[in-house]
Amino acid sequence: MENGIRIQKVLSEQGIASRRKVEEWITQGKIKVNGRPAVLGQKINPNRDVVAIDGERVYFQKSNQKYYIMLHKPRGYVTTMSDELGRKCVAELVEDVPERVYPIGRLDKDSEGMLLFTNDGELLHRLISPKKEVAKVYYARHEGQANADDISAFAAGLTLRDGTVCLPALLEPLGPGESRITVREGKYHQVRRMMASRNMTVTYLERRQEGTLTLGDLPRGRTRELTEGEIALLEGKTQP
Fold this sequence. Notes:
Layout lengths: L4 E2 H7 L5 H9 L3 E3 L2 E2 L5 E2 L6 E3 L2 E3 L9 E6 L28 E3 L7 E7 L2 H7 L8 E7 L5 H9 L13 E6 L2 E6 L6 H8 L4 E9 L2 E2 L8 E3 L2 H7 L6
Parallel strand pairs: 9-13
Antiparallel strand pairs: 1-4, 2-3, 2-5, 5-6, 7-9, 7-15, 8-9, 10-12, 10-13, 11-12, 13-14
Helix pairs in contact: 1-2
């Protein structure tokens, strides 16, 4: 393509990832341009070409303004910016943000609670890395009652029914059929599957804390911008 810009340069300047990381993704086949696998050194027109990373479209920002948003996700919404099945998407709940923002991590359709969004691509990719092991705190209502053996099993690191091994986690019974669970990873439906492995079926699940950030009294379905202090903590510039 003539008069274009190298894709590594575009994605780097957008804060998505370093040029070296973009080259790795291209080599691994993770990046597509207009539906076709990208090649090293390929030039693109950000105003015309459609770029996707791992199937998720990249929306190029027209300004340098960064947004950091907390949403209290309600049940019934899938954590995606569009859905081919026509389901309700969290994108509908952040439409008022002036720039396109993307979720940091996920919450399953039947769960609710804190979900963070940003258009800071570099921070987003850093925070969703499994190596971060950011503590996430959930409140769960469930069938059955957690006991001392369950607490010990969580602390030792559960092996799920399909053989998946989980990192050590904290299970705190709060009352009959209620628990607080703290995990440091984000496997598919992890909390529900962990509880099921101990014969407890989760009937309600809410994420109330992620790292140092808490949901607080943010109403369900509403958003707020993070404070400068909260953003600094996310970026690792200060200690909690």
